[in-house]
Amino acid sequence: MSIIVVGSTAFDDIETPKGKKTRVVGGSCIYFSLAASFLAKPKIVSVVGNDFSKQFFSKLNKKNIETSGLIVKNGKTFSWGGKYKSVSEDPETKFTNLNVFENFEPFIPKSYYLANKIIFLANIDPDLQNKVLDTVDSKKFIGMDTMNFWILSKRKSLDKAFNRIDLLTINELELGLITKKNSLDKSLKYIFDKYSLKYLIVKKGSAGSLLATKNELFWIPCYPFADMVDPTGAGDSFAGGLFSYLAKSNSITKKNIIKGMIYGSSIASFTIESFGTDKLFKLSKKELGIRFRYLTKMAKII
Amino acid sequence: MSIIVVGSTAFDDIETPKGKKTRVVGGSCIYFSLAASFLAKPKIVSVVGNDFSKQFFSKLNKKNIETSGLIVKNGKTFSWGGKYKSVSEDPETKFTNLNVFENFEPFIPKSYYLANKIIFLANIDPDLQNKVLDTVDSKKFIGMDTMNFWILSKRKSLDKAFNRIDLLTINELELGLITKKNSLDKSLKYIFDKYSLKYLIVKKGSAGSLLATKNELFWIPCYPFADMVDPTGAGDSFAGGLFSYLAKSNSITKKNIIKGMIYGSSIASFTIESFGTDKLFKLSKKELGIRFRYLTKMAKII
Questions:
Q1: Is the pTM above the cut of 0.80?
Q2: Could B302 and A300 be called an inter-chain contact, meaning their C-beta atoms sit closer than 8 Å?
Q3: Strand ranges (DSSP E) for chain A?
Q4: CATH number for the domain including B149?
């Protein structure tokens, strides 16, 4: 089963209490697709500049990731620099150079589209997310991520998108920014009253994540033994794991979403153990399986 | 079923981002016993000064709490002042006046002892905890709490106690202080290699709590909708709820400890919604039941 992911590809300069790395390949769709590649065939829709290494394309292809929608444009690849004062806080953005991403027009190749039931719109400009949604039929299961920057600058466009998708992943701070409510119950009521989406996932960092539907709430733990080095990409890896689990199970139920979140948490716990995508590339299915089973057992409390 | 709790009774001056209150009745055994009173008959072993109101004794007795081991001494009641900069952090201690607590010699009345299988040693000087343990037979199920102050100042005494109890509750910071390890897995290994205790509960504030045994780990969520006003007493309320659940179920199994932790989390979620013990006194069994069932459902993810 394959999944389409629309998102960014980037060079990241990352500084955390554990060290510093420059020009690390990252971006939401890279983390997402690497994480998703264990259970599904991810198909990337993104753009890079001609400074992006051809070798990296083949590294992705070797991981069963389809890159024909990863367009190369004349110019420089999107780059971002961030510094994490502590690994549990949002990073301070040092610079954002959109470069070729500035004029990115996401386009889902027909070859991608037909066999796919699942699409993930990773964190990019909500205007672009809406453009993709214009071309997508309503039978697809659509997940979406966003960030504080878009919540503050393009709220109308986000509101539009939130009514066209099935599942939204955000973090606690972003939920508060969207709803302007000071409590979780009021925030959830706001979301499900205002938007037609069915599933809201609230990422809480090392405190795990919540799955909310209109009437129910579940708490999914995260792997507590991870050796945090760099949190970049944790959310996208989590989403990649979750959506690949849904693609593999071929049935989108609350139960499978919960299991998928445990699977996604397992992968994210590896992502954060190295800078960038290093660990995701090296990770074996066996290692991942051990952590997934551990987390499943840990979560099975009653 | 009754439970013996040995701990402090205090007047607290509390400041949180939500307000300020002075001379609030608190102390570990007050929070513990109020929380435990819904399912069991708590029997307090503690000391107060003659400035402590007689009325409060009858308020406790009306809640089915036995106070014949709550000794009145000439002098002032133990008092503590703390300021929480944020409700998720440990408070800054403004003052600690031990007063009558300075010469406290905990003594379990014979009338308490006979029918009881469960004893909780709330956070007090570990020398005193050991004195109680000297008088306790090994068939009792013994829980214990402590804090950073004793970990740093009376480690030998704590080590001795840790080898005489069944269950220890501490928070994440305290676990790190005890083990001096920088990861959870190393910390757990340290605890279970070094001490004979069977259950370790690591309290993680709004991120819930962990139950660890030598070979297993479980994550228990906390109620996510609580309207935090004052975190004081949350840990003692949690323990009171847990131990009353064990007393009521009359069988100390891993499963009952987990259910008891969910029950304890439910009660603690009320404790923090008011200054001091206000909410615990007003709380109805029905309200508590609703939150317990909600949290149980929320935790039942797979």
A1: yes
A2: yes
A3: 2-6, 10-16, 19-26, 41-49, 70-73, 79-83, 92-97, 118-121, 141-145, 167-171, 199-203, 209-212, 217-220
A4: 3.40.1190.20
